[in-house]
Automatic annotation (TrEMBL), chain A:
Residues 10-23 have a biased composition (Basic and acidic residues). One of its GO terms (molecular function) is 2 iron, 2 sulfur cluster binding. [2Fe-2S] cluster binds at C109, C114, C150, C154. Its EC number is 1.12.1.3. Keywords: 2Fe-2S, Iron, Iron-sulfur, Metal-binding, Oxidoreductase. It comes from the Bacteria. Residues 1-23 are annotated as: Disordered. InterPro entries: NADP_DH_HndA-like, NuoE-like, NuoE_dom, NuoE_N, Thioredoxin-like_sf. Binds 1 [2Fe-2S] cluster. It holds the Pfam family 2Fe-2S_thioredx. Belongs to the complex I 24 kDa subunit family. This is NADP-reducing hydrogenase subunit HndA. It comes from Pelotomaculum propionicicum. Its cofactor is [2Fe-2S] cluster. The gene is hndA_5.
Automatic annotation (TrEMBL), chain B:
It holds the Pfam family Fer4_9. It is an enzyme of class 1 (oxidoreductase). Gene3D superfamilies: 3.10.20.600, 3.30.70.20, 6.10.250.1450, Glutaredoxin, NADH-ubiquinone oxidoreductase 51kDa subunit, NADH-ubiquinone oxidoreductase 51kDa subunit, iron-sulphur binding domain. One of its GO terms (molecular function) is NADH dehydrogenase (ubiquinone) activity. Residues 626-649 are annotated as: Disordered. Residues 566-595, 596-625 form the 4Fe-4S ferredoxin-type domain. Belongs to the complex I 51 kDa subunit family. InterPro entries: 4Fe4S_Fe-S-bd (IPR017896), 4Fe4S_Fe_S_CS (IPR017900), NADH-UbQ_OxRdtase_51kDa_CS (IPR001949), Nuo51_FMN-bd (IPR011538), Nuo51_FMN-bd_sf (IPR037225), Nuop51_4Fe4S-bd (IPR019575), Nuop51_4Fe4S-bd_sf (IPR037207), Thioredoxin-like_sf (IPR036249). PANTHER family: NADH-QUINONE OXIDOREDUCTASE SUBUNIT F. It comes from the Bacteria. Its EC number is 1.12.1.3. Keywords: 4Fe-4S, Iron, Iron-sulfur, Metal-binding, Oxidoreductase. This is NADP-reducing hydrogenase subunit HndC.
From TrEMBL, chain C:
The keyword Secreted does not apply. Belongs to the complex I 75 kDa subunit family. GO terms for biological process: ATP synthesis coupled electron transport. This is NADP-reducing hydrogenase subunit HndC. Keywords: 2Fe-2S, 4Fe-4S, Iron, Iron-sulfur, Membrane, Metal-binding, NAD, Oxidoreductase, Repeat, Translocase. It comes from Pelotomaculum propionicicum. GO terms for molecular function: 2 iron, 2 sulfur cluster binding; 4 iron, 4 sulfur cluster binding; ferredoxin hydrogenase activity; hydrogen dehydrogenase (NADP+) activity; iron ion binding; NADH dehydrogenase (ubiquinone) activity. GO terms for cellular component: membrane. Its cofactor is [4Fe-4S] cluster; [2Fe-2S] cluster. Residues 166-196, 207-238 form the 4Fe-4S ferredoxin-type domain. Gene3D superfamilies: 3.10.20.740, 3.30.70.20, 3.40.50.1780, Fe-only Hydrogenase (Larger Subunit), Chain L, domain 3 (3.40.950.10), Iron hydrogenase, small subunit (4.10.260.20). PROSITE patterns: 2FE2S_FER_2, 4FE4S_FER_1, 4FE4S_FER_2, 4FE4S_HC3, COMPLEX1_75K_1. Residues 27-107 form the 2Fe-2S ferredoxin-type domain. Residues 107-146 form the 4Fe-4S His(Cys)3-ligated-type domain.
């Protein structure tokens, strides 16, 4: 418990210096401290078992939206792992991001079944429509375009997943509609994955 | 209540048996009706959970709650036609059921006693099939591993027990003769279902022979092959079969802790596993002193975070320990030095799922099925250019023709079969001439492919085999861990060469380079990923050399897939000069004026095919690049301009 | 005196290259390689067995007992398994009785060539202008395999070279991902700077976030440089700056060479490992145009005087015990990063070359009547960490840096070649006086255990007034990773510990942390001490067999020979040292000596870029600067 208090104090301290440097509003600062508190709990929970680093990183990504250098370093410090190792693990697995994603994520399945049913052409038109490359986020931070390996809904190929909603048997025309809808702030119902 | 003896287990079985009996067609089972809603990933993606809620609501609305029960169940395998709903008694099998159909099913079938015929499946001969057994897709299948999928609710351990679940574990513990169990598995002839087909019993024996403690039991549920979803379906539909098998393995090798390494991309499977482990613990089937013995066994879940190579056992071990999932050289084998340096038994999901069946029915029974070298059944996921995409289980030795044409329903749209790819990125493409070959581990290997985990992707004449090889290489190259030279750099160079060919820059020497490099990568790589990465190249070069030559010599992609080799032309005869194509062309490559056929500038054309899709007259067609040269870059196929075309608009 | 060596445990295994016990009884096996039956020890790999029998198998990623990962695939051999000939990485494939191996079959040669061609297809091949030209393992293997053209063309990486620090340059474009740097840094040094990042073709072996080494908890020891088979990791060269100083008529350029240089420089010019070339070294330095050629051994003696007195002072209750030696700048930085709570235990003595610089620009300048502004001090060091040390702001008076340029042994060799000096023909010359006079105690600073032995010799004299029998102290030397010895001083038994390689230091420091009592501790960052320093010659083209033998032993033996051969073997007997105290410093730990010869330390934290409440006030400037960190790649 004592340790925890200390952690948060030092965090606040860090946050203050950063806030001064980056002119961050105090509200955001508090939010950040809360997120780190949440991460502390995750680390405490999982540190009991060996080999839970990937789990901790996954949870940290859920909390912060991505694994920034600061978050990675924090986890290194708290789990007593070298930061190089943490960074090595983060950059190895494709489910970890170091940059924040856009408001909506388009995951186009590029598994074989989807590929032979024309997913690559869909990817090309998505790139065209969103003006981004695979793995990138649009300038307005609205969309992130990604490809994913087989989600196993091969019967619905080709499959586009938008924020977890599955759109099966997707076509170029449908994709245009989906993008337009999300741009307007609407949403086209897929089905929860 | 904790299960502490076989008697306790039997009591649980009796409790749930009536439910199961009815589902198996015993009409004397229950008075009430049961509605089974497929809750596998494919059906869930097609809104089967909305449908389930809808059914529930309708049932409550009509006051049928007491007499009609709705259950989740695992994958029936008929994914193309999902969501699937099955109604007992009567085993009525509904396909393509939408949430809005709930009302009709409840009112017409459950209340009116009339089968909703429009939701029934129609075989190719247009015959209505009311029950599963009437459907061609199911007729040639044998369900050993999948025998609970579609029958039980995977979120209720009692239903698994009612199917004699955990009986094998109970007997193993009671007999207290691990050696005999290992011997039975050896004799059954079961081989690893994850890839190379190593005899499972020998693996167990090796792990059991180690003196070091503790030992670990691992389950490889990192099903990474694109287009393969057998393991996922087993975990979603029958998670306890894996848990039971792992406990048996733990007992036999002397381990009391196991881990299931499952892809984080499989949220439903993860959830079902969590529920199953929790229920098994509650029942005392995991934890301390199983069946009143001194044997302890518990399971933990570990999640893959998106790395195909973690399907390799040493890489998987590193990943379970929270490290980069990089493989290491063997020996030492995991059975000698695995997790945290301790002896570790690793099998994949489907392999484990076979164990309870073998122990329940005896190794003689299991050994009686399949071919000389490959026993039992194999689950395949069928996908690609095939009518019945889905999950199937057939005896080893079934021919590809039976699988693709009888079960799979053949190729849609009257197209011609070209090849079937088995074994995922590690496998090869099998041409038509081998369709009648009975498939098992050896035969597939002989023709340059492999069993792999059981993905089968069917390709038709519209698929370019060079492009398919490139696709797989892109995959393995992307998933290479980067540790050893041949895989890290070699697959990159292989891919670059393939890209050159598909982009029309290939030279005839490239074929030799591809072949040599492929063999060197295969022979020199550190782990299975690298060793098998060139298989798609080797097999397509072996069977579809003409396509490679067409790309290189003629600068032509016969299937019309490789964009850089394509040329879009306007058929002067058909063009109505409406200008829709020009308006929609993002590249600004199409020009023309009223009264004259439009033209596509091949230099500007990005080959997106948008124009071809938009053209109301279907006047824009794709052809090989060659034509471009013949026509002197005009972007038009000359013909007589038909005046009625102009007039039509 | 009691001596206790640690039982061979993980430490010995970890750095087994240094500590294999040749007398250990092992079971023998027989295997056949290329039709020849050879004998090997059970437990050896095929590669080891082959090399032992004089069969050369090329390898790149293999470092015995340190990096046995079988990943470069250059050491592939055909092994007969069930009648089939299967390719296996010989570095990790166990040699077993009756094994049949083909180590030079056409298939093996062809596949090896493919492997090396693949590596070369992703390697910036600027051999003729490369710092490792003619001393590169990759180049050597390519030559041995007869590679005349590279079949493969394609993307080649073009990442920015990282050289924003004063000690080590990282060129990712020459990296072949052998991971020897990673292995030595994590398994031997336990500093864990490097990890593989990304995967597949994009893999890089880099510090976290691909930062420059100056931005991470790197101790600058340079073991990664020694381990690197190519020029992906090299020292930051400063030869040109030294040439400039030498050519400038207004500058008075003083050079000092560290004790171990005299036993390693010869290797570069083809002398057997362990040849003492002191006289030629001095002659070469003189011919390069240095105005004075001095020996750091002299200030090593001085360091002993200061440190022995510091020890006695602390034993009397003034200051913290144990006293931790501070002459290895890699170790000092290690302590600053990982054991900041022990910084008060560190001896405040600067390392000898810094003391030397400080005295050159004060005592020597005054004595010779030279304007200190005109003096340039060049240090020839076995070390990359000394490059970093010289750049520390506290190492100088504010007006001048104590040491202006630090050259590694390798850089000195390059300068000798550049100037056209034929090293073999050089006569033997002596160091200049007075700062070239040194005792044998100064010389043994260059290998592990030497500092403590030298200091104990003097402390014994200082407390008892008698000289101690020198033979008694041999237990302090030797290459065991960690040693503990009881010594009688002033009627009191003091407990002394010696560790080399920061991995071993970590074990020792953790024991200190756990409350174990020691009085005096010597730690050298590099395995073996300075003889194994990160600035020492690299064997890029020698036969691998020779590399796997431990050359550090021979170097250390040579230093011992220097010590034994000297009449003057105790620092306090050094007349030049006596004189400098008489004329300038007064006495050890006097005010002036504290000002010039002593320093202070800065806690740095494990994550220099971030401050999560680990260490407060750590390099404040550093932290701030790193809030917004820019990437070079």
């Amino acid at each position: 418990m004592e340790q925890e208090v200390q952690v948060n104090e030092s965090l606040r301290e860090t946050a203050h210096t950063r806030a001064a440097a980056e002119k961050v509003k105090p509200v955001e600062e508090n939010e950040k401290i809360n997120k780190y508190k949440e991460l502390d709990q995750v680390i405490r929970l999982y540190s009991k078992e060996p080999g839970q680093l990937i789990n901790i990183l996954q949870k940290a990504q859920d909390i912060f939206g991505c694994l920034s250098e600061e978050v990675q370093s924090y986890i290194a410090e708290k789990t007593e792992n070298p930061v190089s190792e943490i960074n090595g693990v983060v950059t190895f697995y494709s489910l970890f991001y170091t940059e924040p994603k856009g408001k909506h994520t388009f995951d186009l399945c590029l598994g074989t079944a989807c590929y032979v049913k024309g997913a690559q052409e869909l990817m090309d038109s998505l790139k065209d429509l969103l003006k981004v490359d695979e793995g990138e986020t649009t300038k307005d931070r609205l969309f992130t375009l990604k490809s994913t390996r087989c989600i196993g809904a091969c019967g619905l190929a080709p499959v586009l997943v938008v924020d977890g909603d599955v759109h099966g048997k997707a076509s170029a025309g449908e994709i245009t509609k989906i993008i337009q809808a999300y741009r307007k702030g609407e949403k086209i119902e897929g089905t929860k994955h | 209540m904790k299960v502490q003896s076989i008697e306790d287990l039997k009591a649980v079985k009796e409790e749930y048996l009536p439910l199961i009996k009815q589902r198996l067609g015993h009409r004397n089972g229950l008075g009430s009706t049961q509605v089974m809603v497929c809750s596998g990933t494919a059906c869930t993606s097609a809104a089967s959970q909305d449908l389930r809620n809808g059914l529930q609501l309708e049932i409550e609305r009509h006051g049928l709650k007491e007499n009609v029960k709705v259950f989740k169940t695992g994958c029936f395998g008929f994914c193309q036609n999902g969501p699937i709903v099955m109604v007992h008694p009567g085993e009525v099998f509904y396909c393509n059921v939408k949430p809005e159909d709930a009302k009709e099913i409840v009112e017409t079938h459950l209340m009116g006693g009339q089968v909703v015929e429009r939701l029934l499946y129609r075989n190719v001969d247009n015959q209505v099939a009311q029950r599963m057994e009437d459907i061609h897709f199911f007729q040639a299948q044998t369900r050993i591993v999948l025998h609970n999928c579609g029958v039980i609710n995977p979120e209720e351990i009692g239903e698994y027990i009612a199917r004699d679940g955990y009986m094998a574990l109970a007997e193993v513990i009671q007999k207290n003769n691990p050696r005999e169990v290992i011997e039975a598995i050896k004799r059954s002839g079961l081989r690893g279902r994850g890839g190379a087909g190593f005899p499972t019993g020998r693996k167990w024996e090796m792990a059991a022979a180690q003196d070091v403690r503790p030992k670990y039991v691992l389950c490889n549920a990192d099903e990474g092959d694109p287009g393969a979803f057998m393991d996922r379906s087993i975990l979603e539909g029958d998670p306890h079969s894996v848990i039971e098998a792992m406990a048996v393995a733990g007992y036999c090798i002397g381990a009391s802790q196991g881990y299931i390494y499952v892809r984080a991309e499989y949220p439903i499977a993860v959830k079902r596993l969590e529920i199953a482990i929790e229920q098994a613990r509650e029942k005392g089937l995991l934890g301390k002193n199983l069946f009143g013995s001194s044997f302890d066994f518990d399971l933990g879940l570990r999640f893959g975070a998106g790395a195909f190579v973690c399907g390799e056992e040493t890489a998987l071990i590193h990943s379970v320990m929270g490290q980069r999932g990089e493989p290491r050289p063997r020996p030492p084998y995991p059975a000698q030095e695995g997790l945290w340096g301790k002896p570790t038994l690793i099998n994949n999901v489907e392999t484990y799922a076979n164990i309870p069946a073998i122990l329940r029915n005896g190794w003689e029974w299991y050994q009686g099925q399949g071919t000389a070298g490959s026993k039992g059944s194999k689950v395949f996921s069928l996908a690609g250019k095939i009518n019945n995409t889905g999950l199937i289980e057939v005896p080893m030795g079934t021919t590809l023709r039976t699988i693709i044409f009888d079960i799979g329903g053949g190729i849609p749209g009257g197209k011609k079969f070209k090849a079937v790819q088995t074994g995922g990125p590690s496998g090869g493409c099998i041409p038509e001439k081998y369709l009648d070959m009975p498939i098992d581990y050896e035969s597939l290997k002989e023709i340059g492919s492999m069993m792999g985990s059981g993905g089968m992707i069917v390709m038709n004449e519209d698929n370019c085999m060079v492009d398919i090889a490139r696709f797989y290489l892109e995959f393995t190259q992307d998933e290479s861990c980067g540790r050893c030279t041949p895989c890290r750099v070699g697959t990159k160079r292989l891919l670059e060469t393939l890209k050159r060919i598909t982009e029309g820059n290939g030279e005839i020497e490239d074929l030799e380079l591809l072949e040599e490099l492929s063999f060197d990568i295969r022979d020199a790589s550190l782990c299975g990923l690298g060793q098998t990465a060139p298989n798609p190249v080797i097999s397509t070069m072996r069977y579809f050399k003409d396509e490679y030559l067409a790309h290189i010599k003629d600068k032509n992609c016969p299937a019309g897939v490789c964009k850089e080799l394509l040329n879009f032309v306007v058929d002067e005869e058909k063009c109505a000069a409406c200008g829709i194509c020009a308006k929609d062309c993002a590249a600004g490559a199409i020009t023309g004026k009223p009264g004259e056929a439009y033209r596509i500038d091949p230099d500007k054309c990005s080959r997106c095919a948008a124009c071809a899709a938009k053209c109301p007259k279907k006047a824009i067609t794709r052809g090989p690049r060659k034509e471009e040269i013949i026509n002197g870059n005009q972007g038009i196929r000359p013909g007589t301009v038909s005046p009625e075309n102009r007039a039509a608009l | 005196m009691e001596t206790r060596e640690f039982a061979p445990g993980p430490l010995v295994q970890k750095t087994g290259q240094l500590y294999d016990n040749p007398e250990k009884k092992v079971e023998k096996i027989k295997l056949t390689i290329d039709g020849r039956e050879i004998e090997a020890d059970k437990g050896m790999s095929v590669l080891e067995a082959a090399r032992l029998a004089g069969i050369e198998i090329p390898s790149l990623c293999y470092l015995r007992h340190i990096n046995e990962i079988g990943s470069c695939r250059v050491c592939l051999v055909e092994v007969e398994i069930n009648g089939a000939r299967v390719l296996q990485a010989s570095c990790v494939y166990p040699a077993t009785d009756g094994l049949v191996v083909h180590a030079s079959s056409p298939r093996v040669r062809r596949v090896r060539r493919t492997m090396v061609e693949l590596l070369l297809s992703d390697h910036h091949r600027e051999c003729t202008t490369c710092i490792r030209n003619l001393n590169c393992e990759l180049q050597n293997i390519a030559d041995n395999l007869g590679i005349r053209n590279i079949k493969f063309t394609g993307e080649m990486k073009a990442l920015q070279v990282q050289n924003e620090n004063s000690f080590i340059v990282r060129d990712y474009n020459k990296c072949i991902k052998c991971r020897r740097c990673e292995a030595i840094c994590s398994k031997v040094q336990e500093v864990n700077v490097y990890s593989a990042l990304n995967r597949g073709y994009d893999t890089v072996i880099a510090p976290a976030f691909m930062q420059d080494l100056s931005q991470v908890a790197c101790i600058t020891c340079g073991q990664c440089v020694i381990a690197c088979p190519t020029a992906s990791l090299t020292e930051k060269e400063c030869i040109e700056s030294v040439w400039e100083a030498l050519e400038d008529p207004d500058k008075y350029v003083v050079v000092q060479s560290a004790p171990s240089i005299q036993v390693t420089l010869g290797e570069v010019f083809g002398y057997p490992v362990g040849t003492v070339v002191t006289g030629k070294l001095v002659a070469a330095l003189r011919r390069l145009g240095f105005d004075k050629v001095f020996a750091t051994d002299f200030t090593a003696d001085l360091t002993i005087m200061e440190e022995a007195n510091e020890l006695l002072e602390r034993l009397e209750g003034r200051g913290k015990l144990p006293l931790l030696s501070s002459c290895s700048p890699g170790w000092v930085k290690f302590a600053e990063h990982f054991y900041p709570e022990f910084l008060e235990n560190l001896s405040t003595c600067k390392s000898p070359h810094e003391m030397f610089g400080a005295l050159t620009k004060t005592y020597f300048a005054e004595k010779e009547g030279i304007d200190p502004k005109k003096i340039v001090v060049v240090a020839i060091m076995p070390c990359t960490a000394k490059k970093f040390e010289a750049s520390r702001p506290e190492m100088g008076t504010g007006e001048f840096k104590d040491v202006d340029w630090v050259l590694t042994t390798r850089e000195l060799a390059r300068m000798i070649r550049q100037s056209g000096i034929n090293f073999h023909d050089l006569p033997h010359e002596d160091y200049d006086t007075p700062m070239g006079i040194a005792s044998g105690a100064g010389a043994i600073f260059g290998s592990t255990g030497g500092v403590i032995e030298a200091a104990v010799r003097t402390a014994y004299y200082l407390t008892s007034g008698q000289e101690m029998d020198l033979v008694d102290y041999e237990e302090l030397r030797g290459f065991s990773g960690l040693k503990e010895v009881w010594v009688e001083l002033k009627g009191r038994r003091i407990k002394v510990a010696i560790a080399h390689g920061t991995g071993n230091a970590r074990v020792l420091m953790d024991r200190l942390k756990a409350g174990e009592q020691f009085d005096y501790v010597e730690i050298m960052a590099c395995p073996g001490g300075c003889v194994g320093g990160g600035g020492q010659p690299i064997f890029g083209t020698r036969e691998h067999k020779e590399i796997s033998l431990d050359y550090r032993h021979n170097r250390a033996d040579a230093l011992d020979r220097i010590d034994y051969s000297k009449e003057l073997r105790r620092a306090h007997e050094n007349p030049a040292v006596k004189k400098i105290y008489e004329e300038f410093l007064g006495r050890p730990l006097s005010n002036i000596s504290r000002k010039l010869l002593h320093t202070y330390y800065t806690p740095r934290g494990k994550l220099p870029g971030f401050n999560f409440g680990g260490i407060k006030g750590s390099h404040a400037g550093h932290v701030k600067e790193n809030i917004v960190r820019s990437h070079t790649t």
